[in-house]
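The records we work with from here on pair a chain with its fold. Each token is a code from a learned vocabulary of local backbone shapes. A record is reproduced here so that you can trace the correspondence yourselves:

_____
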Amino acid sequence: MSSSQIILDQLHTDASAIFTHSIQSSNIPSAFDRHLHFEGKTLIHQPSSGVEPESIPLESYKRIIMIAFGKAALTMSNALLDRLPHKPHLRGVCSAPEVPARHTWRLRYYAGGHPLPNIESFKAAREALHLLRRADKDTFVFFLISGGGSAMLELPLDPRIPLEDTIAFHETLIASGAPISEINIVRKYFSAVKGGRLALAAPEAKKLSLVLADVPLRDLSAVASSPTLPNQSTPQQCQDVLERYHLLEKFPKAVREFFEKLNLVSAQPPAAEPIPHNRFDTLLSNQDLVSAARDHAQSVGYHVVIDNTCDDWDYRDASAYLIKRFRELRQELRGQFSRICLLSSGEVTVALRGPTGCGGRNQQFALTTAFELARTPNDSIVVLSAGSDGIDGNSPVAGAIADPTTIARARAYNFDPEASLARFDACPLFTSLGDTIVTGPTGNNLRDLRILLAAENG
């Protein structure tokens, strides 16, 4: 084995280890312990904003409701249940990727769909609204919200819109190429639980939302399309998104007629005003994921730079930007550091066209990057892109690693990399090469992480 291949293998190992460490360090139970503890039956809540702790005497409430939904719903609900000392009057809903074999009778569990809603998503939303509409001033509500919640807890504002049209609505938005911030604006005007409407279902109850942020911290209202925060978007912004991506003509007839009758230009946005008795706190964010990756990379000898500029960019533009940025960085730091790491967090966008294969945005990004890396086949550089939830698109993997040999190795295995890229079918290619990142569902969701590593030969 050549020295360059040995270096390349080590870079693969290091990239995988950095990603794995970042996932393991972003621990939900530990985050609960940092933000919540009990003195007897009184809950002490320490907000992430650093303001003074809040004391909540839970024993003074006649009912406690827990509404958990999203990819981390099971992990979050179990963490809170393990810590609650007072549960006699607790009831709730948990909509997660799957229903656990063992669970408490106090919650009703649903296997909500993702990335598209399913009938369980509808059932979970109806049950949540039913519980919340019965809440009064003697009720305390915990909302446990994580990424994926937009699909796992869903119900159209117009009850006449059926599930199949709601699925087509979500599918059209995902395939539009619009950034998630714009997709969520449209979702808020369609849904009976988004744009603050979930919290408004219990106006008199005291409410605390605990959130795993799969969006930039500046845009926390985008988590699960803002079910418990006031809507910051305007009807005109929704109209602009519909027009920019020609969405109305692509929606099913019932959905198109809903938006046309809604008269968005003059409509009042959902939950535009502050929601009564409502508190909101971020348990974990993408920032925690990146910080853990940085710390581990530094501990194994890399000089680390963080650049999140390409968040929400098209995957091709993000790939071109990061490779150019990394090469410039290596040139700038040459002679100062022999091992360099560039970290980039957030998500890239993919506009799907025609029939698709098995893959996701991270593998699409990695395969695109592999073509650029192939231009310098003797270079010692690897690029990892993977999702913190452990699932990339419709594939069973979290993401993949590319290097300058990826394209040549794929052709040696009789793959057509150009065709795989065009069909959004990167998973079989990376799986055959042994270059997928496999974690299984992590029970967490803190967006994606891209890791670029390089080492000087010799």
The first helix runs from residue 3 to 25. Residues 22 and 292 are 5 Å apart (CA to CA). Residues 28-284 form a domain with the Rossmann fold fold (CATH 3.40.50.10180). The longest strand covers residues 206-213.
